Each structure stands twice: as structure tokens, then as C-alpha cells.
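Hi, can you check this record?
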Amino acid sequence: MKKIVLLLVVGLAIAGCSTVKSGTDQNLVVLQGKVEPLGMSTFQYGTHVISAADKIYALKSSKVNLKDYEGKEVTVKGLKVAGYPIDGGPEFIDVQEVTNK
């Protein structure tokens, strides 16, 4: 009985995992720039920002500690958060991976 419950839990955990979508997906974003803490802003979402290609992007992540990359030039891979930008704010990116430039 315990084995069945364990297998069920593992199976549900695997089924609930999301995968990074292919590069052809329009929601996948790759940005290069310097990660900075959000600070004061006119928009109220995200914890950090990155300036890339003369545009600012708001960032959040549950997979990566963005504080570790503050002030550093990095490459950020993430997914656009649906429903953003709002009220003239920047695109909102859910960061999946960060690598040093």
C-alpha cells in the first residue's frame, strides 16, 4: 500500500512539472544585460529589472535567486508572464535560468 501511494505521489509530482518551451515559442525570452533591484517604480510588479536592447524588463523568479546577480552582466532566460505589461509598464519575465555573460 505504501508503495502505491509513493508511486502515485511521484507520478503526480512529475506530471505537475513544467518544462522550458522550445526556442520557437513566442513566450520564451533571452535577454542580456545588468540585473538591478526594482527600487522605486511606476509599476508594482517584479523584484528586479534588466535593461536590454534599450528596453527595461521587470523580472521575478522562483527558481533563481536574482539577488545573487545584482549589478552583474548576465544572460537571462525566461518566460513572458501573461497579462503584462499593464498601465504602460515593462514586459514581465519569469526567469528560469541565469548565466554569467
Observations:
- The mean pLDDT is 85.
